[in-house]
Amino acid sequence: QDPKELESMVHLAATDLVPYPIEEMQCMHQVIRILPGGESVVLVVLVQRSVIEAHLNTFAMHNLDIVEILLSTACLVAKASLGTGGHVALLHVEPKAMELVVIQDGALQFSRGIAQEQPLDLDTAEGQELVTSEVRDLVAAHRREDESGLDIDTLLVNTTDLDAAAIADLL
């Protein structure tokens, strides 16, 4: 199918399905597969621009430069899998758990998760120390198990329930 025609069809369908004006939305799509009859199965992601702007403002308040915004853990893994030539680490932090995944040249090199009994409170010195010490332990475990001897070149932080900028500031 013609990419421009497909994009037009996606925007038209989004207009009917989303309860917000399409002008307020950021719309992205990816063809998943082509069916035998020539139709396309398409993944569509819609996000209100105000949500993106709110996140950008949060990063700006912490003097963090934005290079790229990825909308989900799957996006993070896809980005890390592009192969930068070095180790890309994905740190996912939730109030009672965190996981570090390290990918090199599109291949999983390391994955380790840990759980906490008490929820993380980033507003306390104890909570901040817990995050930094747990991340140090995860990175140390990666270094022990990784045979390449390479350090982590890029660390991507993801969270749904905590302040990602505060976590980034700690690290």
Would you kindly provide a brief summary of this structure?
With 171 residues, the protein is α+β, with helices and mostly antiparallel strands. The protein has helices spanning 3-17, 49-61, 73-80, 125-145, 164-170; strands at 25-34, 40-48, 87-94, 97-104, 107-115, 152-158. A 4-stranded mixed beta sheet has the order 5-4-3-6, sandwiched between helices. A two-stranded antiparallel sheet has the order 1-2.
Overview features:
171 residues; alpha+beta; four-stranded mixed sheet; 37% helix; single chain; 6 strands; 30% strand; two-stranded antiparallel ribbon
Poorly predicted runs are: none
User: Based on helices, strands and strand pairing, what is the structural class?
Assistant: alpha+beta
Q: Quick one: how many beta strands?
A: 6
* Envelope shape: globular
Give the N-to-C terminal Cα separation: 45 Å
Residue-averaged pLDDT? 81
Q: What amount of the residues lies in strands?
A: 25-35%
Number of helices, counting only DSSP H or I runs of 4 residues or more: 5
Q: What is Rg?
A: 19 Å
| Residues in helix, % | 25-40%
H/E element string?
Answer: HEEHHEEEHEH
**Order of strands, widest sheet:** 5-4-3-6
Q: Give the biggest sheet.
A: 4 strands, mixed
